[in-house]
């Protein structure tokens, strides 16, 4: 019986050894060979050692349950990681879409800025060629400069918002990388703990099997080693897959981080360009002020100086000249009128002359005596209003008869008595005052 038993044990060991050699040599058919070995071993055990079937089934069930638990835990962790990564990628895509919209808005504002600059240049040309309307053109240019400044401020605010969004994306990417590293460490720790638990369970089972039966220990150890190798290979494959996925995600995030850094550099460059543009606008404003100063104070002012001031002085001189003539004529007529109505209006003449003197006094203190004058005027309204209009009408008629003749003659008279006229006028005025 013992010889028969030893013979079967040797046959079983040979079968297992041949199976291991086949596994080592033909690793491509690893799963099929393992299955065949397990089936042959079970047949041998059932045929020769049927009393060990229950223990082997229990061991296999425990190992299968442990493997299923490990796989479920790993799958749950992978699903959680994938969900977190998808959510973060959606957030990053939304932020990138917001960045794209801000870039489009920035491009639109830059185009408007360019159009406003062209309009400013056009207005400067208009200011150069149509300097008569310099005031309106300068007002429009100043309004456009204010609008340009507003656009530049809006563009700078948009750039600052874009920079803040990029910084937020970079922080999110760094947090994702840290979370992935922490998850990898946790997975490795869990796998190590599970492997330790499996090894402890296997050691306990081996001890129990050794205690129960020593004969089949080699077969059971080989089966357990094969199962442990399978479990370790599965776990290593899963870990390698997870590590590859995480490395790919980290590389993609690093690539996105580099793109965002390039985008940040472009934004900084754009900000510098905007600052240069602002400096150019300030220089343009300074040039505009210089042009305004040049055209207005050097060209426009002196251009009209020869016309306006000359015309003004000429007009003033003409007015003065006409005033002398009229004044002289008026005094002359007044004396004539005075001598003509001497017996009738002697008292009135002195009163009127006093009133005339008072009128000049009223002229220098106009605001003070204005109401008094009206009161004085209405006080004498009923006495000389009709006579005043009659007198005024008489003056107009007289003036109408003598004006044209005297006016044309006056030029000759003026040039003829140019050196004597002023003196004579003041002398005449002095004579009037003395006479008064």
Automatic annotation (TrEMBL):
Keyword Transmembrane annotated: yes
Keywords for this protein: Membrane, Transmembrane, Transmembrane helix
Transmembrane segments: 6-25, 30-50, 56-89, 96-127, 133-159, 166-192, 198-224, 231-264, 270-295, 386-404, 416-434
Signal peptide extent: none
Protein name: ABC transmembrane type-1 domain-containing protein
Organism: Loa loa (Eye worm)
